[in-house]
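Q: Given only this backbone (132 positions), what sequence would you predict?
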């Protein structure tokens, strides 16, 4: 298994201090998030290993930490709320959770940072002699 792009210390530095149980959970999540980034960005390890590197190593570190942070914020103890509304009479309260099921994902802007924003269009001739 390849080395994760980020460590528990990186996550704590970029987010907040973690308790011992959170550190243990984060370690596993960092491995999964790193594998996910490698799946989404084939060749990322080659870019990082080039001399000089073709990508700043802080970018995949940041992306992996953000993916793990989203999962960890979705815990029951500390849900991440993106929207909240309150009404005083006759008392109403509503809120929207940002990641209620605790999914791990990489955002479109994070994929762009990783160099995966290019879209390619290809034309394939259907008959011999046609030019696409």
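A: Predicted residues:
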């Amino acid at each position: 298994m390849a080395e994760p792009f980020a460590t528990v210390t990186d996550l704590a530095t970029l987010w907040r201090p973690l308790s011992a149980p959170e550190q243990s959970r984060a370690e596993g999540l960092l491995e999964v998030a790193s594998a996910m980034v490698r799946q989404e960005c084939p060749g990322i390890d080659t870019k990082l290993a080039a001399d000089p590197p073709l990508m700043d190593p802080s970018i995949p570190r940041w992306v992996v930490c953000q993916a793990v942070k989203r999962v960890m914020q979705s815990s029951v103890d500390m849900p991440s709320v993106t929207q909240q509304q309150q009404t005083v009479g006759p008392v109403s309260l509503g809120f929207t959770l940002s990641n209620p099921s605790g999914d791990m994902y990489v955002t479109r802007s994070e994929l762009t940072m990783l160099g995966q924003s290019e879209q390619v269009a290809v034309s394939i001739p259907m008959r011999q002699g046609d030019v696409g």
